[in-house]
TrEMBL record:
The lineage of its organism: Bacteria, Bacillati, Bacillota, Clostridia, Lachnospirales. This is 1-deoxy-D-xylulose-5-phosphate synthase. Catalyzes the acyloin condensation reaction between C atoms 2 and 3 of pyruvate and glyceraldehyde 3-phosphate to yield 1-deoxy-D-xylulose-5-phosphate (DXP). Belongs to the transketolase family. DXPS subfamily. Residues 314-478 form the Transketolase-like pyrimidine-binding domain.
Length: 618
């Protein structure tokens, strides 16, 4: 096994290049064996094996810096830097991260998780290097999907004017998570190879020469217009025009060609972009056929590519998907917007049934929100379906473009709360704070699957900026009997008791039920309220609770700062200072990867921890 000889960074240099195809095969087998057991990002990693090997062969780590965009494709990089053992604990609590982490290895040059940042970070490294008079290479590896994000162009624009030695590797597999979309994606897939241009040129010359009296003149004309033909036919003119040197496209599964081109690129002065064509899911039939399904996967049966666990229960995304399909039929003004996540957000069905009312804007959350503002002004009702952590990108647009103009834009905020194995870059910990701080915004969170549906219907009828946030995973199907109509700013009383009031947001209502049971077994009779609205706050309910309760315990899957509990505490302190408010929320720290239940325990927002806190404070 060649892989056994790789114990640390740069060990690949000891393997003769003619053995690279064998090593690539071993790496793919290793990835499949491990990811099929643990789950993780598979298809992108299978596609980037040779590319990563060639980079590790040509560059010297950790001195040279490789910056992985998003970072979900960095598994081979982890293998080649001595972290094979980490794959047994991949993305589990306390185990190895699925993304590059500087705390994990000096060979991880930059922590990532969100898209389209690698070129900016690379340019920063390059400037620091030159200012300090140091000598190392900086390579940013960006996918064609990540290249749909605006930051990439801001960074290329900057890199070109700086005229510093810098390398960008474009890993083009013609896929984002789903099919890649938009102008840049078409540009990349329409690119001719350099060989293609030469073949075209020779072919035209030969044919024209055969026409007596016309050929030579026409050929002269071709030379005159060569520049414009070149623009049409030579690949990479867009990047060249932006001030980069373009090399490629090159077969991303041909290791020796990759090594050669990276070595050539090292000699180029200024910024160079190497266009590498790869195949997502390479080497595993089910992943090649269904790259989106195997982009990020749970554990699966290796032989057939079928997920191991599927209890058949609907998750919140499924509920959203079903409601959107109904809106498609009944609410002709409703349009759907996604930033490259039609699968993850559940909009795929809407896309298939109502393609003219579906917009995938690429990995461009900022644009998605301002685009929705335009749609709203033009008379549509846009539903922007987006993960909580990715919506962070668009805070300015939510404030300036949507809320300032008080537009009817619906934000379907998925993956709100602790998402689990993706870790700190993807936890949806901040949306309640950053959404409820904005004037005109309404913020809701459902306690169960029926309430998600009711809230979405309410949001369509409402007029103004409105967000519904719901967590990753199985939708709660308890408390079905509590289904009061949704009224803006009104919470829902579930169980009336006294002394202690449990006031929970969204997913935490289920936890609050458990806390209530624990307290009942101690002889208490706590009240349970489903907050429903984080903004506006149900002050009437707080005034009522103040009459019969000494303590209000708030619960939310969001950071404490600026969250629901802080708002309740602020109101109570001014209006009912004798009532104590205990805020149970996420701490002021980044929460790593692992099983969400474990993460909740660690953060102190599981039922036992909350119960213990209540008892300790008595
Ligand atoms: C800001 C942001 N939005 C969305 C995502 C979700 N996401 C992760 S990878 C990915 C597709 C990336 O495509 P590409 O860069 O081509 O890499 P590939 O998976 O094809 O290797 C998306 C949309 C993200 N990580 N960050
Ligand atoms: C790398 C990335 O950002 C996505 O692939 C993300 O991991 C998807 O998360 P879900 O599995 O929750 O859809
Ligand atoms: Mg891609």
């Amino acid at each position: 096994m060649l892989l056994e000889t790789i114990k640390k960074a740069n060990d690949i240099k000891k393997i003769p290049p003619e053995k690279f195809p064998e090593l690539a095969e071993e790496i793919r087998a290793f990835l499949l064996e491990h990811v099929s057991r643990t789950g993780g990002h598979l298809a992108s990693n299978l596609g980037a094996v040779e590319l990563t090997m060639a980079l590790h062969y040509v560059f010297c780590l950790p001195e040279d810096k490789i910056i992985w965009d998003v970072g979900h494709q960095s598994y081979t990089h982890k293998i080649l830097t001595g972290r094979q053992e980490g794959f047994d604990t991949l993305r589990t609590f306390g185990g190895m991260s699925g993304f590059p982490k500087r705390s994990e290895s000096p060979c991880d040059a930059y922590d990532t998780g969100h898209s389209s940042t690698s070129i900016s970070a690379g340019v920063g490294y390059v400037c620091a290097r030159d200012l300090k008079g140091e000598d190392y290479s900086v390579v940013s590896v960006i996918g064609d999907g990540a290249l749909t994000g605006g930051m990439a162009y801001e960074a290329i624009n900057n890199a070109a004017s700086l005229k510093k030695n810098f390398m960008i590797v474009l890993n083009d597999n013609e896929m984002s998570i789903s099919q890649n979309v938009g102008g840049i994606s078409s540009y990349l897939s329409n690119m001719r190879t350099t060989e293609g241009y030469h073949e075209f040129k020779t072919g035209v010359k030969n044919s024209l020469n055969k026409i007596p009296g016309i050929g030579p003149a026409a050929i002269k004309q071709i030379h005159k217009t060569k520049d414009s033909i070149k623009r049409l036919m030579i690949p990479g003119m867009f990047f060249e025009d932006m001030g980069l040197t373009y090399l490629g496209p090159v077969d991303g599964h041909d290791c020796s060609r990759l090594v050669q081109i990276f070595q050539e690129a090292k000699k180029v002065q200024g910024s160079v972009l190497i266009h590498v064509k790869t195949e997502k899911g390479r080497g595993y039939e089910p992943a090649m056929r269904h790259p989106a399904r195997f982009h990020g996967t749970a554990a699966f049966d290796l032989e057939h590519g079928i997920p191991l666990s599927n209890n058949g229960k609907a998750n919140y995304t499924d509920i959203f998907s079903t409601v959107m399909r109904k809106f498609g039929d009944r609410e002709k003004q409703v349009v759907a917007v996604t930033a490259a996540m039609p699968d993850g957000t559940g909009l795929k069905r809407f896309r298939n049934m109502f393609p003219e009312r579906f917009f995938d804007v690429g990995i461009a959350e900022e644009h998605a929100v301002t685009f929705a503002a335009g749609l709203a002004l033009g008379g549509m009702i846009p539903v922007v379906a987006v993960y909580s952590s990715f919506l962070q990108r668009a805070i300015d647009q939510i404030i300036e473009d949507v809320c300032l103009q008080n537009l009817h834009v619906i934000f379907a905020v998925d993956r709100a709360g602790l998402v689990g194995s993706d870790g700190e870059t993807h936890q949806g910990c901040f949306d309640l704070s950053y959404l409820s701080m904005i004037p005109n915004m309404t913020v809701m969170a459902p306690k169960n699957k029926w309430e998600l549906s009711d809230m979405l219907k309410f949001a369509v009828k409402y007029d103004g900026p409105i967000a519904v946030r719901y967590p990753r995973g199985e939708a709660y199907d308890g408390l079905e009997e509590f289904r009061e109509p949704i009224v803006r700013g009104r919470s829902e009383l579930i169980y009336q008791g006294k002394d202690i009031a449990l006031l929970a947001v969204g997913s935490m209502v289920k936890t609050a039920e458990r806390v209530r049971e624990l307290l009942i077994s101690d002889g208490e009779n706590p009240t349970l309220v489903n907050a429903r609205f984080v903004k506006p706050l149900d002050k009437k309910m707080l005034d009522t609770l103040a009459k019969k309760h000494d303590v209000i315990v708030t619960m939310e899957e969001n950071v404490k700062s600026g969250g629901f509990g802080s708002a309740v505490a602020e109101y109570m302190q001014i209006t009912h200072p004798t009532v104590r408010v205990q805020v149970c929320a996420l701490p002021d720290s980044f929460i790593g990867h692992g099983n969400p239940e474990k993460l909740k325990q660690k953060a102190g927002i599981d039922a036992d921890s909350i119960y213990n806190r209540i008892k300790e404070a008595e």
